[in-house]
Every structure is written in structure tokens, then in C-alpha cells.
Amino acid sequence: MRTQISPDGSYVNEGMNCSSLDITMPNGEPHGGLTGSNEFILSASGKKISSENRMEQVNQWCQRKVKSACTRKTLHKRLPISRWLPNYNSSDAVGDLVAGITVGLTVIPQALAYSGIAGLPAAYGLYGSFLGCIVYIFLGSCKDVPMGPTAISALLTYQTARGNVAKSILLCLLTGIIELLMGLFGLGFLVDFVSGPVSSGFTSAVSLIIVTSQIKDVLGISAKGTTFLEIWQAIFADIHNIRAWDTVLGLTCIAVLLIMRIVAGLKVGPEEDTLKSRKHRIINKFMWLIGTSRNAILVVVCGAIGYVFQSSAQAPFKLIGEIPPGMPSFQVPLFSLTANETSSGRAESFSEIVSGLGSGLIVIPLIALMENIAICKAFSNGKPVDATQELIAIGVANIANTFVQGFPGTGSLSRSAVNNASGVRTPMGNIYTGALVVLSLMFFTPYFSYIPKASLAAIIIAAVVFMVEVKVVKPMWRTKKSDLIPGLSTFIACLALPLEMGILVGVGLNVIFILYHAARPKISVERLTSPGGTEYLIITPDRCLIFPSVDYVRNLVTKHSIRQSLPVVIDCSHVYGADYTAATVIDSITADFTKRDQPLFFYNLKPSVCAVFEGLSPVDFVVYYREEHLDDLLKERAYKPKQVLSA
Question: Its topology with respect to the membrane (predicted)?
């Protein structure tokens, strides 16, 4: 089926001639006057714009974008505080105050602990826990997200910056810039390439690595390493130096934290809330508050124990050491390092630092987005999540944290759960969390130095051990067993290799699975009878015809058509796209069928796909759109069923 192309480049798609829709114009012009064009594009006004004037079209597009960016809708979308602040009331303020203080009591001990995971002094976790919170109030779209350091971001920071303070702070700036640029260019969709199984495998592996990295502090020994295997090798190498007091304190703290976690979920009184008395509600709220504040309570108690024993000649516990009092200095991060500021003993320029940070500059922003989007989806109550806005929010927050010497952070799932359970109403709860961190920096840092390292390690272990996603294995096995392959591969690779390599292995396997499915479409073959009584073979591919799959489809079509020796109909109802390679294969198939004098027809082919196939002017390329037309087409081809002769 060929098309007649006019001198101006337009053409009428003759593949629509058999369509059941009659949209002929009154003047006799077919298909409603719709024509395609290979030489022109259409402007918004419907005028033809040649390639010479496309710069003018680009300018008009830019003007439209600028105009759309200056609307109230865009303002509310990109500055979410303008959407909820005008309706802010006293009830919201009370809910945010309670939630903000509760989260603040959680974030302070976690920030001190996560600094150790990042290989930095304890103060740097607090430095990254207050300014980002305030920034998120203005730009964040989810009320439950408390911006700050997380266990995963701390581990990635350590694997990227190797515990160097200056590099960690610069990494925070570069991470924020990359996240902001990804948001401005709408690249939030990149997180969609990390599937659920890969994400579960990555999170589970990270949890085990974090637990492993904290065992050394529970045992009171020294063990360095970046991967799971390296850390365990270092632990066994120094196991003879185990400290009994640190071990007892660490194990006791883990047990107490797990018990208090259970207490937070206990309820007294009748199951139905309406039947509970005021006394029951007070007791339940008290137990929930005690369980939720378990980290803060443990830090206070262990700090007091550390203070009592520190005066003895032989201190039984390893303490986190002195923390500089007061607020961090507001300063620009270092863009070059002297020989005294590097572990290699030689000066490094900005380009050398960036080169040394390597793939962490890409992995950390993506993982931060994954964490944040997971929180937003968990507490969105079915509402859509704006990944672009979240990228902008955490990007600007990380940029701000850089100037107060913080390391990369994002939303924390554990603190978000506390935030939600505390009744947070708006992102304004972050201001109370940030204020509590500021107060702790100004007045309580001298007392933080007495906190034993084993207690902070226990806090981390008791928190991240529940991030191991064992519960997803059984549902995954029931639904689609092949999804376990990328999940388990990611899990094993992240344990044996650096994290960025592990997640690349998982994403790579996902891409291979996607390409395999694209190259091997499902094809159904049926033997049917036309309304006129003629038997024919109908072959139905279930997806687009593109270069990885066309040879596979051609082989199947050829095999079944030769075996059956019947007219063949290719049902293209599910074929929504095609490419040049597919067009060449269709041209070859139609030629083969013509040589065998075997009818071949294409049913319900989309006009856009038809235009691709017609580009090579295939021989005897016939398309129809109504089943009753098949007998007419067979008559036109003078097809006669072959008679089977009996002996």
C-alpha cells in the first residue's frame, strides 16, 4: 500500500481507507483533511513553519515557558509553603510543636551516631540537622519529611569521602547542586530505573553493612573497612582486644532499646478507641512517648554513667570525646586541600577532589531521592508525589547545610514515622526540630562528650536492623520469581563490592531483563475461519515491533506460515510503535509471501506505524480494519484453498 506524496511534502495515509470511521470532508477531502508532513512542523496557530524558521519557534517556546513559570499555579507548586501557610491555624501549630519536639529528641542522638558511620566527629551530624530542616519548610511538599542525616547517606558519605571532613562538606555542596539541577531539568524519573527488588536488595545490604560497622564500637575494638567483607576481616583481626565493659553496655543498650520499641506499640484497655477511658488514653500516650523517646532517654542515662566513671583512673568505656561548644561557623567549603588536610599527604586541587569522589556524586543524589520519595509515598495517602519538587527541596537543603559544615542528608524514614505518629500537620514541624538541635549545640555539647560509643552504636543497630527487608521475599516468590534475581544479585553485590557498584549491578540486570522482554514479545497463533468460510492463521504480537524483536517475530511468522500453508493475518492491535529495522523486516516478509503466492494481511495497524512501514514501499502491503473485509481481500487476490487429495 503506497502513498502519493505531493510536492509540498504532505501525504495522505492510505492505510485509513478501510477504516470503519467515515470522516470525509464535505468537499470530498478524505480523512477529515488530515495529512502528514515530512518537511514541516505545525505551530500553535496551525501555520506551517519550515526548518529555516525553527529558531523563531524555539524563541516562542521559551517565551511560553517563561510566561507559564510566572503563574500562581507554578508558584504554589515550586514554593509549597505559599499553598498551606495562608490557612495555618492554632491547631496546626500545636500539632507541629508536639511533633517537632518529639522528632528533635530522636534526631539528636541519631545525628551523633550517624557521624560515626560517616567517619566524622560527632558534632558534624548535629551541624547537618537544623538548617536543612528550615529550608525544607519553604520548598518541601511532604509534611512528614524531617530533613537531616540518615544511616544510608552517612555510609555512602564514608565510602565516597573516606572520613575526610573537608571532602565530606564539599560532597554535601556538590550533591546539593546535582540534586537541584536534576530537579530543574525534571530528571526525577531516573529513580524509576531502580526497581522495587533492587531497592530492597540495596537497602537490606546497607543495613547489614551499617550493623557490621557498629559492632566494633559495641566490642570496643578498632576495625576499618568500607565493604561488608573488609569490616568483618578487620573485626576478626582485632578481636583479641575486645573490651568487656563496652560489650556489656552495648548489648544491654540494644536489649533495652528493643524492649522500649515494643512498649511503644503496647495498648491497654478495650481495642476500640471509643470504649477506652481517659485513664487508658493517658497510659497509652505515656507508653508511646517513652518508647518513641527511647534514643534520647538512653543517651541521657548512658551519658550520666559515662560522666560518673570518667573520673576513674581506668575509664571502663570508650567515649565519643570532646564536641566543640556552640554553633558551627558559617563558611564556604574548601575547594582545594593542602598536604596536611589529605590522607595521602599531598595537596589536591578541586578537579582532583571531584575525580576522587567518583561515582558517589551520582549515586548519593539518586539514593537520597529514593529515600525521600519512599517517605512521601508512604505518607501521601494516595496523593501524587512530585519528585521534581523533592529534588529541588533536598538539593537546596544540602547546599545550605554545606555552609554550616554538614554532610549529605535527606529525609529519614524512621524519623518520618515518628513525625507522622506525633500528629504533624505541616512542614512547619521542622522548625521546632531545628530549634531543638540549635539549643543542644548552644548549651549541651559539653555533656555530649561523656556519651559512650557503645551506646550510640546500639542506637544505630537497634534502628537499622529492621531495615533488612526479609518480608518482601515471600510475596516476590509468589508473584514473579524472576524478580528475585536482580534483588538477590544487588544484595550480594552490595555486600561484596562498594555500594555504587552493587546498585549498578542491580540496575544493569534490570535493564537486561527489560531488553530481553523487548526482544522476545509474546506471540499468539490461532487458526480461525473468516465469515466467508475460509480458514486463515492469525498471529498476534503483544507489543511494539522494534529492532531487538523483529527477527524473532519474522522467524515465528515464517515458521508457522510455511507449516500451515494458509492465508496469514498479523493482528497489530497491540503494535503502537515501530522503527526502520522493523520496516525492513516487513518489506522482506511481504516479499517472501508474494514469492510463495501466500496471502498476508495486516489487521488494525495504527496509521503512525503504517506510515513507518510504507516508507520502504513494501510489495503487496495490505492493511484492513474490519473483519468482514478479509473475504473481499482474499477474492481480490484470487485465493483458492488447497484441496487435500485422498488416496
Answer: Multi-pass membrane protein
